[in-house]
Amino acid sequence: MSETDVHYDVHAVEEKWLPVWEKLDTFRADDDVVRSGGREKRYALTMFPYPSGDLHMGHAEVLALHDVIARYWRFRGYEVLNPMGWDSFGLPAENAAIRNDEHPATYTYANIETQLASMKRYGLSFDWSRRLHTSDPEYYRWTQWLFLKLREQGLAYRKNSPVNWCPNDQTVLANEQVVDGACERCGAEVTKRELTQWYFRTTAYAQELYDRLDDLQSAWIGKVVNAQRNWIGRSEGAHVTFEVEGHEPMTVFTTRPDTLWGATFMVVAADAALATELVSDDQRQALEDYLVDVRKETDIDRLATDRPKTGVFLGVHATNPVTGEQMPVWASDYVLADYGTGAIMAVPAHDQRDLDFARVMGLPVRRVVDTGEDNPEESGVATTGDGVYVNSGPLDGKSDKAAGISEAIAILERNGHGSGTINFRLRDWLLSRQRYWGAPIPIVHCPVDGEVPVPEDQLPVELPELRGADLKPKGTSPLGAATDWVNVACPACGGPATRDTDTMDTFVDSSWYFMRYVSPHDDTQAFDTELANAWGPIDLYIGGDEHAVLHLLYARFFTKALRDAGLLDWDEPFSAYLSQGKVINNGRKMSKSLGNGVNLGDQLAEFGVDAVRLTLVFASPPEDNIDWADVSPGGSVRFLQRAWRLSGDVTSAPGVDVSTGDVALRKITHKTVHEIAQLLESYRFNVVVARTMELVNATRKAIDSGCGPADPAVREATEAVAILLSLVAPYTAEEMWERLGHEPTVAQAAWPTVDPELLVDESVTAVVQIQGKVRARLEVSPGISESDLEAAALADPAVTKAIDGRQVRKVIVRAPKLVNIVV
RNA sequence: GCCCCGGUAGCCCAACGGCAGAGGCAAUGUGCUCAAACCACAUCCAGUGUGAGUUCGAAUCUCACCCGGGGCACCA
Question: Do A535 and A43 form a contact (C-beta atoms < 8 A)?
Fold first, then answer.
């Protein structure tokens, strides 16, 4: 056997097939077919990349996983929408532009071309005709249009409030972008600033965003559903209203209305407007002083759990609606301005935070639930569990918490002092950014007309040409410096006005890109509603866990908002969601400082595209991390060569009648194809590869020591291997397909038809257990009846010996596989 | 503190409540070779984190605990 028969050149086949595939353009999605319902659709989507340099191992993994399902669906006869694009607005381009004294577009579009070339080489089944970039004016025109659409619906608004501020990036951040008090991107300690900013009213959909998670539970990976649930943070409780002398009544949210009898004071968030409204003249200065201290705190300070409670008395009292008592109203930073109503009723006996505050300030503690534990007033430990109500009027003597809460709510509702309610932790989405490389907010501020939307026919509001040092962060938006751009005539009155100088959070761009893919070149609308309804929602979305709450939640919000705007008829964008694990090395995240980075380009050069893809898919279930030190791309190379070698051994002609082939091998082939289809449906891609390996092993054995290379069953098996392998290793598969005497491309081959008769064995092994331990095996027909199997088992000499004359008390029969005899 | 997910050979991972091992890596041996690589074949290896429970039968279901990973957290 010559060298060339044992190996193929992995790089030569890449060169060979790329232009062929390009020409065949196999993966173009046909809008007409789905529009007419001519074929069932599938929409496969992977989070589009940000163009920072070339692709890395993480991209390689998600792209490989994604391509398996996209190619599989195509084989199964679905019309598949499989687009790719770039999330190309963002800070790294801006920082590069400052560094290199150039325009952010230079860095951005150069990297896009690099990544595009890498993706093509990587052999992916994308429909490149739908490629989009969020930084193109043709795209962000519609981002701006959608912003205005949401504003029309009351879902985008401007307000002044303390916001998260990253002193390093010199921009505000959404709550979701603050992790442990630090900027998610650069790690700088986040501070607060009082600014007027744009928000999307995500809270308007809190209930629906939360409730629909139940439907996503089974088709989304559990931890992401859990993360969203925690982030939205639903709490059941009540609103309770307290009269305040000389003021409007104040309302609080509580999850424990049943402890209202134990409320002894009130606390208002110091930085809430309510505190300033309520404070008496005597106490005004004290509050001002306290606020100075509070504003100095960073989130990191606030997150410290056991720091001492501070606060000031506001000089007013509220009336407890059930006891009639006068309760002092305090301000403190332990109450959050933007959760609930920004004020609480304090029940120190049964809430540790309130108890801590009461003890520092010398406020009364009254126990209203006797849990059998020490009295909190003496112990300093609040009791939060179930117990018997005391000092609680109508609740006294009862002990069921749930019933107590319902009864308290009923009393409040009767008296007009409150009602049951559900509160969410979710906040509105702060979308203004004081940076350059994003979509400008299409609003003009006019001294006469106020906020005026830029008319639709004037969109897009294009970015002014700024570069290099113009973009240096200075705490206000760089766009403000482009005076020619900023100063415009008011669209409403024609008078002098100024443009909004902030740009949108880049998460806005990515909240609707999956809709744009259905009609990416349409210059009359954001997306074609009919096509969006035909293609959507996305049948499988794959991406990283880092977007578990950010992007996925925002995309869900946008989908609901656009549905309510009449632009879509689906409620949830992603029917199934799969998260990809990280590619790590030697137990650690890859990083420059650790020196353990693995370069994708180097891996591709060493092992070839197919082997790298196969390694990533085979290594573990998709959501698990892959430790590159634990896997063997060399092993993948060997396997692929072994599979390929089969195609050279087949001696029967293409189209040979396989029905006369070796039955044993045919059964293996059909069973494997059958099982792999099921595995693919549940995204168990690593097992798919393992099963393909088994088929290769079985075929090898048949050739060498079984039916021989001329048997039609060998051709059938090898063709099946080529088709199965094309999901993961398209170059090897294509090469096999050609050697098997077929025209390119294997991607257009018919998925092997499974013959149900070949899935059934003539005989199966039934195990006979006695007391759950295996004592004998019987070869039986798969159709054997339970009574026949039982009789056969009891007649078996090994079984009678094991029973040893003992009384048979019970026989469990699971024909045809198992008999268990209990003695 | 609350909520999710996981724990199976040296390693990565399989196993509708029914024989714990499919596949791969590593290791060892044999064949091929002048030799090595490649290739082929073979061998080796765990009783499923711990403890209870349910069951004829538990890696699988239930409970508690331990360990690891993730989400939320002064959220009332």
Answer: yes
- Residue entry with tokens 């029969």: A813
Q: Is the CB of A820 under 7 A from strand B?
A: yes
* Polymer length of chain A: 823
Instruction: Provide the angle, in degrees to the nearest 10, between the axes of the packed helices A550-564 and A222-232.
Output: 70
Q: What is the DSSP string of A383-434?
A: --S--EE-S-GGGTT---HHHHHHHHHHHHHHHTSEEEEEEE----EE-EES
Q: Are strands A41-46 and A540-544 parallel, antiparallel or unpaired?
A: parallel
Q: CA A702 to CA A692: how far, in whole Å? A: 15
Count CA atoms closer than 13 A to A438's CA, side-chain side: 27
Note the CA–C1' distance, A210 to B72, in angstroms: 15
**Strand A583-585 and strand A626-627: pairing?**
parallel
In one-letter notation, the amino acid at residue A598 is V
> For A495-521, what is each residue's pLDDT tens digit?
999 999 999 999 999 999 999 999 999
Q: Which of A367-381, A492-506, A613-627, A804-818 is predicted with the least confidence, judged by mean pLDDT?
A: A804-818
Say which residues have a Cβ less than 8 Å from residue A448's Cβ, sequence separation at least 6.
A490, A492, A493, A495
CA–CA separation, A8 and A17 (whole Å): 13
CA A24 to chain centroid, in Å, comes to 34
> On chain B, which bases lie within 7 A of the protein's CB atoms?
2-5, 11-16, 18-20, 22-26, 38-41, 56-58, 69-76
Alpha carbon separation from A728 to A39, A639, A692, A742 (Å, rounded) = 25, 13, 11, 19
Q: What is the C-alpha separation between A618 and A622, in angstroms, rounded?
A: 9
Q: Would you say residue A3 has pLDDT above 70? A: no
Q: Is the pLDDT of residue A2 over 50?
A: no
Closest Cα partner for A405 from A423, A382, A386, A425? Answer: A386
Instruction: Check if the beta carbon of residue A323 is closer than 8 Å to that of residue A220.
Output: no
- pLDDT on residue A1: 38
